[in-house]
């Protein structure tokens, strides 16, 4: 991995490591930091996105990309799952105005009266719609009939279609 990828990984995982050591949630919440990170949607999707980033960043390295382009190509299709996790990352009642919000038996399983919403979806939904539209358009174009007009083989062995 490159230096910037490693730095990004450390920056994203450092709050988790600090919470594990200090457990600042003990004064504010009934759950421990481990419970928050492994039982709530934000923690689970955060770890999932971190795993996807490690896979994508490590296969984007120039040597790996040149030696095994397929690994780079297929791991970067995980961006779709990264975006799904990003959209659901801010769900739950993580930011709230009371220590013990009301739980309800129906979805979203907590009372929204005490939750201070993130509203981050407003900023990430448009790039997601553009990405999805581009993928659909690419799939439509891929189903068209293809006609080869000329094939050239260069002296170096490269094939030009």
Descriptive report:
- Strands 1-2 form a two-stranded antiparallel sheet.
- The model has no long low-confidence stretch (mean pLDDT 78).
- The protein is 60% helix and 2% strand.
- It has 161 residues and is mainly alpha-helical.
- The longest helix has 22 residues, at 121-142.
- It has one domain (3-144).
- It has helices at 3-22, 25-28, 33-39, 41-59, 62-67, 69-75, 79-89, 121-142; strands at 152-153, 159-160.
- The chain is elongated.
- α1 (3-22) runs antiparallel to α4, α3 crosses α4 (41-59) and α4 packs antiparallel against α7 (79-89).
- The two termini are 34 Å apart.
- It has eight helices and two strands.
Concise summary:
The chain has 161 residues and is mainly alpha-helical.
Describe the global form. Answer: elongated
**DSSP, total strands:** 2
Q: What structural class do you assign from the helix and strand content?
A: mainly alpha
Helix content: 55-70%
What do the pLDDT scores average to? 78
Order of helices and strands: HHHHHHHHEE
Strand content: under 5%
**Total domain units:** 1
Write the layout of secondary structure elements.
Blueprint: H1 3-22, H2 25-28, H3 33-39, H4 41-59, H5 62-67, H6 69-75, H7 79-89, H8 121-142, E1 152-153, E2 159-160
Helix pairs in contact: 1-4, 3-4, 4-7
Which structural traits does this protein have?
mainly alpha, 8 helices, elongated
């Amino acid at each position: 991995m490159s230096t910037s990828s490693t730095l990004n990984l450390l920056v994203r995982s450092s709050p988790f490591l600090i919470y594990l050591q200090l457990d600042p949630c003990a004064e504010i919440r009934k759950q421990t930091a481990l419970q928050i990170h492994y039982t709530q949607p934000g923690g689970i999707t955060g770890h999932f996105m971190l795993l996807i980033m490690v896979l994508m960043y490590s296969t984007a390295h120039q040597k790996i990309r040149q030696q095994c382009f397929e690994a780079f190509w297929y791991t970067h299709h995980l961006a779709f799952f990264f975006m799904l996790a990003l959209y659901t990352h801010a769900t739950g009642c993580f930011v709230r105005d009371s220590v013990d919000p009301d739980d309800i038996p129906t979805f979203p399983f907590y009372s929204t009266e005490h939750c201070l919403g993130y509203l981050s979806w407003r900023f990430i939904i448009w790039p997601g719609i553009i990405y999805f539209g581009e993928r659909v358009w690419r799939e439509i174009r891929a189903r068209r009939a293809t006609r080869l007009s000329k094939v050239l083989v260069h002296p170096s062995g490269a094939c030009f279609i």
